[in-house]
TrEMBL record:
The keyword Plastid does not apply. It holds the Pfam family Fer4_22. It comes from the Bacteria. This is Anaerobic sulfite reductase subunit AsrA. InterPro entries: 4Fe4S_Fe-S-bd, 4Fe4S_Fe_S_CS, Sulphite_reductase_A. Residues 211-242, 293-321 form the 4Fe-4S ferredoxin-type domain. The gene is asrA. Keywords: Iron, Iron-sulfur, Metal-binding.
Length: 333
C-alpha cells in the first residue's frame, strides 16, 4: 500500500516511530572525510528526513548498527559475570537493496552456521528495513552482476522528491501510522545495469591458488584492512579482555571487528601463522567471497556494493581481481 505526504508530515511520523524505534540512516558528515575539507557519508541516528542522505553511497555499511565495531559481551568481577542491559527500543534502518542482501549474509554466518550467536540475534530480532532507491548506479558498484540489485525484504520503502515523500508500507505493525495519509501507487525502482560488470569464473576450484594473479597484490596491498572494515558482509572478529585500573580483577570482554588482511590475523600459539604474504591474504578474501561461501550456502557472499574499491588507498579493485580470475580460469581450461 502506498501513501504520499509532505516532509513535515513524514517527520511527524518519524517522531511517532521514535517512541518505539531508534532510526538509523546514511548521514552527510561535513568535513569528516579523509581530508579536512571533504565530507563523509556514514550511518548514524536520525530524527527527521532532512538528515538522511539519499543520493550518495555511505562509506561504511549499515552492518555497524547490528554488529557494532566494538561490543561489550559481558562484565566480570572476581565472582560473577553480568551481561549488559539490552536496549528496549527496536531498530529501523534506511538502506539500499545490496545492504539488505548483505545482512542476509551476516544472518547465515551468525544464525545458521552451526549455531546461533545470541549477541547478534538480540539486535537482529529488533531490526526492520526501510528501503531507499538507487536512482543511478554509484561508482564501483556491481550489484547487478551479484543479483543483489533487487529485494522484496523490507517493511517500508521511502522516496523523497523535493518537499514530498512517497511511502510504501508492507508491514502490518506499521500500517496504522498512515491511515490519514493520501493513498497512491508507490513502488521502488531498481538498478538494471552498472557501469562495471563482474563475471564470476565457472568451474572455479582450489587449483587457482597457484595462479600468478595473486602475486600482483603481494606488492600493492599495504595490509591496512580498510576493505574489510567497510564491507557489509565481512563477519570476522577478535576478543579483548579489558581490565580496569582500579581493580585488575574486574573488567569486561569485548568483541571487536577483525580483518583477514592485517598482520597477526592468523597468528597462533608458538609464533606460527598462515598467509603471511599479502597476496595470499587477498586470495583468501576473494575466494571466500566468490567461492567458499557459495559452496556452503548456495549464493555468493559479495553483494557488489563496491565499498572496498572506494576505500582502498592503493586503488586495488575487487571487481577487477574477480574478472582477472575469470580470465585465468579460462586460460587454464
Amino acid at each position: 500500500m502506498g501513501f504520499s505526504m509532505s516532509s513535515k508530515k513524514f517527520n511527524n511520523l518519524m517522531n511517532e516511530l521514535m517512541k518505539n524505534y531508534r532510526i538509523y540512516a546514511p548521514k552527510l558528515l561535513k568535513n569528516k572525510g579523509t581530508f579536512s575539507d571533504t565530507d563523509m557519508v556514514r550511518y548514524g541516528e536520525v530524527s527527521k528526513i532532512e538528515e538522511i542522505e539519499f543520493n550518495k553511497k555511505s562509506l561504511f555499511s549499515p552492518k555497524e548498527v547490528i554488529l557494532p565495531i566494538t561490543q561489550t559481551l559481558f562484565y566480570f568481577t572476581e565472582d560473577e559475570v553480568i551481561e549488559p542491559k539490552v536496549e528496549e527500543k527496536n531498530i529501523l534502518i534506511f538502506l539500499r537493496s545490496c545492504d539488505i542482501h548483505a545482512t542476509k549474509r551476516l544472518d547465515e554466518i551468525y544464525l545458521k552456521n552451526g549455531g546461533v550467536d545470541p549477541y547478534y540475534k538480540r539486535l537482529r530480532d529488533k531490526v526492520k528495513f526501510v528501503l531507499i532507491e538507487c536512482e543511478k548506479s554509484f561508482e564501483n558498484c556491481f550489484c547487478v552482476s551479484m543479483d543483489t540489485n533487487k529485494t522484496e525484504d523490507y517493511s517500508l520503502f521511502v522516496k523523497k522528491q523535493g518537499d514530498m515523500v512517497s511511502v510504501q508500507c508492507k508491514d502490518e505493525e506499521l500500517i496504522h501510522l498512515f491511515h490519514d495519509e493520501e493513498k497512491q501507487e508507490v513502488a521502488p525502482k531498481f538498478i538494471e545495469e552498472n557501469n562495471i560488470e563482474v563475471k564470476i569464473p565457472e568451474g572455479l576450484n582450489n587449483s587457482i591458488f597457484k595462479s600468478e594473479v595473486w602475486k600482483e597484490y603481494s606488492s600493492r596491498c599495504i595490509a591496512c584492512g580498510k576493505c574489510n572494515t567497510v564491507c557489509g558482509t565481512c563477519a570476522c572478529f577478535t576478543m579483548q579482555d579489558i581490565f580496569y585500573k582500579d581493580n585488575s580483577n574486574v573488567g569486561e570482554r569485548r568483541r571487536v571487528w577483525a580483518s583477514c588482511q592485517t598482520e597477526g590475523f592468523t597468528s597462533m600459539a608458538g609464533g606460527h601463522g598462515f598467509r603471511k604474504d599479502k597476496g595470499e591474504r587477498m586470495r583468501f578474501k576473494v575466494m571466500h567471497k566468490v567461492y567458499d561461501f557459495k559452496k556452503r550456502f548456495g549464493y555468493h557472499m559479495c553483494v557488489g556494493c563496491g565499498r572496498c574499491d572506494d576505500i582502498c588507498p592503493e586503488y586495488i579493485s575487487f571487481s577487477n581481481c574477480v574478472n582477472k580470475l575469470n580470465e585465468a580460469v579460462k586460460e587454464e581450461s
